[in-house]
Design brief:
The protein is α/β, with parallel strands linked by helices and about 400 residues long. The protein contains 13 helices and 18 strands. The protein has a domain of about 210 residues: Vaccinia Virus protein VP39 (Rossmann fold). About 35% of the residues lie in helices and about 20% in strands. It has a 7-stranded mixed β-sheet. A 6-stranded mixed β-sheet has the order 15-14-13-16-17-18. Helix 5 packs parallel to helix 6. It starts with a strand and ends with a strand. The mean pLDDT is about 95. The structure holds ligand DWN, S-adenosyl-L-homocysteine and zinc ion (ZN). Ligand DWN binds next to helix 11 and helix 12.
């Protein structure tokens, strides 16, 4: 059966299948392995509006709940990025008499804590209970709910319209995207903006970052597909700019039609996408064959290192590590454990592949011969922190855009 496009109901044609996969943040205890959830992780492009999206989806309640383990404040680079976002909103959009900002997926309050400190009216909408509580502890006001049309209508009744609705690494996670836009229509003031920052399809393809594909990432946005989506739902995309997070993202700004002048950067990115044939079948087919080659190269390297008696440890247990280990069949026989700084991941197993997650203190106890860098998007921060590993003769392995020993 065909999957219908979640934006326009067109036919979605599959171009990559990463096999049977668990939910990427479903870290589990050894005693929980028996009941583990799996689905088929495959991606395709809509033949009408070109939106790239998952074929099968996991119910949102299985993805976001009290035990959701991603803490947005876990990286210094992310803390500083979101603090800057907040300061920019305070300087530009939140300057009227009683401004109001809503964040969809505020997680542990990494952005809204700065807004709260500035004394500006705000509301985070966050379904995952534990991270919502972390935000509340920072003085952030949070509504525990999934954002949709109904939630938006309730917020408007209680708080009035918003000057800014913001989302980071969240809007591409929401399968009911039409309901989200109907909600934005209810909630956004006449001159308000809906701003969201999401992984960029262009970067995923250019960098071969296939591990960005997992259950939470329902959509893989391009500027072209977001422009079409905004128009279809009665809005206008007025700005798009590249930002460095998660290896390369785009910050989109959407407004009510004809309220803001479209930016030069938007026109440039649209032209680049067209020239680079970003939305064309041949680009997707090439991506699929490159991904299979990376898998073969990585498995060969790890198998050779094991045969040579070398010790390889994983560094970072991001959602991405679930995709790559399950797709490549990397188990504890090849990588006995992974170090990660997130306390709630430690003592658990990476979903599906069941690599144990341990605290970073075990990385140097003693240092391994090689470290497989799953959190490659944090390489600068991690390599600076782990200089002694290199000094001890240790080597880093990365796999995007190519398998390489550094
Ligand atoms: O879209 C999403 C983004 C916002 O975050 C979510 N669906 C899930 C998540 O994606 P991710 O898990 O790929 O995010 P990160 O930021 O790449 O995760 C990095 C991991 O590495 C974290 O578990 C923390 C860990 N880490 C570490 O152990 N030492 C990170 C740093 C910087 C470190 O020094
Ligand atoms: N904004 C943070 C966190 C991103 S993780 C950052 O950029 O780092 C995605 C977050 O979106 C999770 O905390 C998840 O619970 C939340 N989320 C998922 N679906 C949602 C929905 N429908 N409404 C609001 N939040 C949602
Ligand atoms: Zn479509």
């Amino acid at each position: 059966m065909d999957t219908r496009c979640r934006v326009c109901s067109g036919t979605v044609r599959e171009f990559i299948d990463l096999g049977r996969q668990p939910t990427a943040n479903g870290f589990l205890l050894p005693s929980e392995v028996a009941g583990e959830f799996f689905f088929r992780l495959a991606v395709g492009a809509c033949q009408e509006c070109r939106m790239v999206q998952l074929l099968e989806e996991v119910p949102q309640e299985l993805r976001y709940h009290a035990g959701y383990r991603y803490h947005a404040s876990g990286s210094a680079a992310h803390r500083s990025h979101f603090e800057n976002d907040a300061k920019r909103f305070l300087r530009t959009e939140l300057t009227g008499p009683d401004p109001f900002i809503v964040e969809i997926g505020c997680n542990d309050g990494v952005m809204l804590s700065t807004i709260s400190t500035a004394g500006v009216r705000h509301l985070g909408v966050e379904p995952s209970g534990d991270v919502a509580d972390l935000a509340r502890a920072k003085g952030v006001r949070v509504l525990s709910a999934f954002f949709d049309e109904q939630t938006a209508a309730d917020i408007r009744i209680r708080h009035g319209v918003a000057d800014v609705v913001f989302g980071a690494n969240t809007i591409c996670h929401i399968a009911h995207i039409a309901s989200v836009f109907r909600g934005i229509d209810q909630l956004l003031g006449p001159n308000g903006v809906f701003v969201f920052e999401e992984p960029y399809l262009g970067t995923i393809i250019e960098q071969m970052a296939f591990d960005q594909i997992y259950d939470e990432h329902v959509f893989y946005f391009s500027v072209t597909s977001v422009k079409e989506m905004a128009a279809r739902f009665g809005f206008e995309l007025v700005d798009a700019e590249r930002i460095p997070l998660h290896g390369g993202e785009i910050r989109y700004t959407i407004a009510r039609p004809a309220t803001r002048a479209p930016s030069e950067s938007l026109a440039e990115l649209l032209a680049q996408e067209q020239a680079g044939k970003l939305s064309e079948e041949q680009t997707f087919a090439q991506f699929g064959s490159n991904v299979a080659r990376i898998r073969d190269d990585l498995v060969t390297l790890l198998t050779d290192l094991r045969a040579e008696g070398k010790r390889v440890v994983g560094y970072g247990a991001p959602g991405k590590s679930s995709t790559v280990t399950n797709y490549c069949g990397i188990g504890p026989d090849l990588v006995p454990f992974v170090c990660d700084s997130t306390p709630s991941k430690q003592g658990h197993l990476i979903p599906g592949s069941h690599l144990p997650v341990r605290p970073p203190s075990e990385f140097s106890d003693p240092y391994p011969d090689y470290a497989l860098l799953f959190a490659w998007n944090h390489s600068k921060e991690i390599m600076a922190k782990e200089e002694d590993f290199r000094a001890s003769g240790g080597k880093w392995i990365r796999y995007v855009p190519e398998v390489e020993v550094l």
